[in-house]
Amino acid sequence: MPDAVATSPTTSRDPVVARMPMSRVPERLFSVTVIGSGMIVLLLLGAIILMLATGAWPALKAFGIGFFWSPVWDSVNEKFGAGVMIYGTLVSSILALVIAVPLSTGVAYFLTEILPVPLRRAIGVAIQLLAAIPSIIYGMWGFFILAPWLAAHFVLDVADLAAPVPGLNKVLDYGGGNSIFTAGLVLAIMILPLITAMFVEILGATPVVLKESAYGLGCTRFEVVRSVAVPYGRRAMIGAIMLGLGRALGETMAVTFVIGNATRLSPNLFAQGSTIASTIANEFNEAGAGTMKLAALLGLGLTLFIISFIVLAASRALVAPRAVS
Predict the structure, then answer these.
(1) pTM greater than 0.90
(2) In angstroms, rounded to a whole number, what is the distance separating the alpha carbons of residues 293 and 78?
(3) Which of 154, 230, 296, 305 is the most buried (most CB within 10 A)?
(4) Residue 242 lies in a domain
(5) Which residue segment(s) compose the domain that 101 sits in?
(6) pLDDT in tens, 54-98
(7) What's the CATH code of the domain at 118?
(8) 274 to 30, 207, 269, 324: CA distances (angstroms)
């Protein structure tokens, strides 16, 4: 009988086992917190979409699907279309990428491979400080310094060179300092530090053995970048470029200062233009509650949201790992 008493359920209960339910409390709390945070983000996103769609519905109902490509923006006659703003947004953002991506690649490789180690941190911090400058400062610099300089020393000379070339003379025609081109240049300077910082991390993650093997085969530095570093980090670099594009699409104040804010459609890069964000910033205070103009501005906001969603979806598709057959 003593053996039976020693092995009874009451006396043989392990203290560790008894405390196991309490040890799961932090895990459950963490799980609930994470799920709740995700649901809050989804609810906020849904609320934003609902607000934009509800506010823009009168304009979409009045002008139909043609609202998204109509070049007319007439506040007096209450005829509104997003075509000019979509064109200015896309052209200025793509122009910014065309300028910023090659520069970011060169600066990133210079920092990771060519610059002496003691100077890398100092110059890298100096480049990253560009990202900390407020956008309105870029806009003021572009308006007071860059735009007048371009008008005096660049625009007319380039237009003279392009004048004899059919087609090109329409894209690079005579214009002024405040233009789509200036907006694209300012945006390029703004997204340059963002893309550069990510490129530095991507190029720095390239295995040293791969680069040394390429150098051992007689490759030049350019060939190592083209054939080793870029292919190795291609997906991450595409993600960095798309992140820079997203920043350029939504920029407001800097673009508002330098683009000219003209609601007319022109293929000329040196002509004044307008973007979705700059139009909303300029005209939102003039739109009264319940007016068609306010609905059209909210429609522009919905359009920018759709464009940003398409860019995000494209970036996800481009960086997604491919299945090896």
Answers:
(1) no
(2) 7
(3) 296
(4) yes
(5) 63-319
(6) 999 999 999 999 999 999 999 888 899 999 999 999 999 999 999
(7) 1.10.3720.10
(8) 47, 45, 12, 45
